[in-house]
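User: I'm writing a short methods note and want a consistent example. For Copper-transporting ATPase RAN1, I'll paste the sequence; you return only the structure tokens, no commentary, since I'll be parsing the reply automatically.
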Amino acid sequence: ATPTAVMVATGVGASNGVLIKGGDALERAQKVQYVIFDKTGTLTQGKAKVTTVKVFSEMDRGEFLTLVASAEASSEHPLAKAIVEYARHFHFFDENSLTEDAQYSSKGSPISAWLLDVAEFSAVPGRGIQCFIDGKQVLVGNRKLLTESGVSISAHVEQFVVDLEESARTGILAAYDGNVIGVLGVADPLKREAAVVVEGLQKMGVRPVMVTGDNWRTAQAVGIRDVRAEVMPAGKAEVVRSFQKDGSIVAMVGDGINDSPALAAADVGMAIGAGTDIAIEAADYVLMRNNLEDVITAIDLSRKTFSRIR
Ligand code: ADP
Ligand code: MG
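Assistant:
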């Protein structure tokens, strides 16, 4: 392609909200064979909501939510934010107003009014969080977090979590003083266009793949056949490299801090415009409309620019 063609294509991209950082990135996109999507915030809306609260102890729901939200209050994780938000509304409204479709208003009781004191908070990457409340250990996260700390999960609790996961929800377990006290189900719906884009890529001869830190069952329920689940935060770049091993050209689409090493490792990194600055910096493309259809726009634009003139 001539420099003029590249300039024109870059302009066409920009007017569609597809920002391209240079001619090399524009050229590589035409050769993409795999598009690896991050799940949370990229394929999904990134608006996690608690849909299920099940207490497996003597505690009532209010006590359970207070304990779990207190433990999660220091976490930046979207799952933690969903839990704290839910608990805030539980304490402000009555429990029956918290249905799955409830529109959470920005109001709510001031958190300081009911949060418990937390000691020794720590985030466990890819697993959850741990801390101490009233001198007792509190764990909130996935199975691995609990079992690695020696908390056993009964068949009854396990079945409850499996049921959540099979309906594409993330099951979050909470343990207090060595015992499971309850489970929360969190849903994060897919973006409206996700399925169409996945199908569209396949029709173009490009293979869609999903990578996530979430568990296998929830990941599989999303509907993309090629899935890498339970990937540790540092592991996403490794997944990109594994696809590149045979010389394949790989695009990565992501939004999070976790995704930036993978965006940098990919032949074509595409950041969601609403994503974190670090992801945007690491990427070759920024999709300003936050619409996954622009992954296809970007590949099309490159194909049109380079195939004709070569
Ligand atoms: P992702 O953002 O793709 O879900 P993460 O590595 O951030 O990947 O998290 C992986 C899993 O670890 C989550 O699905 C969840 O089960 C658990 N987890 C991580 N952080 C938290 C947290 N603050 N509270 C509860 N669970 C968590
Ligand atoms: Mg994400």
